[in-house]
Amino acid sequence: MKTVVAGVLGSLMFAALSGTALAETTLTIATVNNGDMIRMQGLTDDFTKANPDIKLEWVTLEENVLREKVTTDIATKGGQFDVLTIGTYEVPIWGKKGWLVPLTGVDDPADLLPAIAGGLTVDGKLMASPFYGESSMVMYRTDLMEKAGLKMPDAPTWEFIRQAADKMTDKAAGVYGICLRGKAGWGENMAFLTATSNSFGARWFDENWKPQFDQPEWKATMQYYLDIMKADGPPGAASNGFNENLALFNSGKCGMWIDATVAASFVTNPKDSKVADKVGFALAPDNGLGKRGNWLWAWTLAIPAGSQKVDAAQKFIGWATSKHYTELVAGKEGWANVPPGTRSSLYANPEYQKVPFAKMTLDSINAADPVHPSVKPVPYVGVQFVAIPEFQGLGTTVGQIFSAALAGEKTLDQALTEAQDAATREMTKAGYIK
Question: For position 351, what pLDDT does the model report?
Fold first, then answer.
């Protein structure tokens, strides 16, 4: 018997020394199909070489589908994922519910931009680490602007955008003056429309949580949007989200595109864009009321409380959101393609300061104020969203109504009435309205 035990122990010791007994951990990572995330997947050899006992399994999904699957999984404690790609909307809500594991392995957390890190911190603990941060801005064709006889101001008004879109549109040549989100979703068309509405003086709710879609400011916002898209937008715009508009812009079909600052590296990359050398940038427009129509967002990596592989997940998030990862991308793809909007050190780097959109991105991020997003007082936090659990469902419902209006299936007045009714029902049911 002793001989058998000794033999077994000897075999185990040999296996351990030879490395075959290393327990392999497989991390399942849910992520969004954005360009920066796809790029990161292609660079993970750098991580797995340093961590040979950790295997990575990716679940890459379109934005709306990702949100639905991740939310269902975490709310039911399904344990399907070990690392989640979530945004600044989910992090504070889920962190307060105890659904996320506080992060301990983040590289130099003091270097994170305060505007971004503040929205990811709950009770003094960082609950998610930003992979990239963004605001929104105007990206425009410098050649078409010149041809129209106009000069884009650094801080344009919505009226200037309307005039420029009219002059740049050449439907016979397949060029549309403006491309804007129309695809339904609280993080798709409603991200753009909510941020835009702030600059028109609109708000989702008054101080008593009464929905405001029956007020003139929302009518003015939607009238502007529907008019400019009908006159100068591409066909089928009600189906276009971030990725669809990016493809249109890169193929030369958009005079202007108002969207996430993170798109700047793609529209200026000759590998991706036919118009890479003809792109300019400006702040999101305003109406002179003190608020610009730009948002504030970060795609972040977080660990669900149901994960059994927390140590490995901490290591992965530490790598993916580190200064080392930034340098890795810069070395392979150039500084213009590093994940933007997360670290002070990046914007202090002389090499990055040469990137044409670097300063405009930082100015846009710093121009957003999630605590005071609109002209009038509001009871909520959030620029292009309302940081309450009910918003995910309600925002998508309203997004579907407004997308139908863009498609010509509803009138503006019908859409606003339906949005007001839906919001009133939801807020009453949830106990916000007594």
Answer: 97
DSSP 102: P
CA distance 197 to 158: 11
Instruction: Record the pTM.
Output: 0.84
- Of 283, 292, 282, 300, nearest to 341 by C-alpha is 300
pLDDT at 76: 87
Specify whether the CB–CB gap between 233 and 189 falls below 8 A: no
Q: Is 408 exposed, middle or buried (0-12, 13-18, 19+ CB in 10 A)?
A: exposed
Spatial distance between the Cα atoms of 358 and 261, rounded to a whole number of angstroms:
9
So what's the pLDDT on residue 64?
Answer: 82
At residue 16, the pLDDT reads 42
pLDDT at 20: 41
The Cα 430–Cα 230 span in angstroms is 36
Give pLDDT < 50 ranges for the chain: 1-21
pLDDT at 11: 41
Do residues 194 and 204 make contact, with C-beta atoms less than 8 angstroms apart?
yes
Nearest to 162 by CA among 253, 217, 232, 220: 232
Name the residue type at position 90.
E
Q: Say how far apart CA 383 and CA 135 lie, in whole Å.
A: 10
**Which pLDDT score, from 0 to 100, does residue 22 have?**
53
Torsion of CA 99, 55, 297, 187, to 10 degrees: -80
131 vs 135: CA distance, rounded Å: 14
* DSSP state, residue 111: G
Q: What single-letter DSSP state applies at residue 424?
A: H
- H-helix or E-strand spanning residue 18: helix 2-18
**CA torsion, ordered 271, 272, 273, 274, to nearest 10 deg:** 60
pLDDT at 43: 97
Sheet holding 25-32, edge to edge: 54-61, 25-32, 83-87, 297-302, 129-134
Going by C-alpha positions, the residue among 235, 257, 232 that lies closest to residue 245 is: 257
Structure tokens at 218: 């929302």
First-to-last alpha carbon distance for the chain, in angstroms, is 76
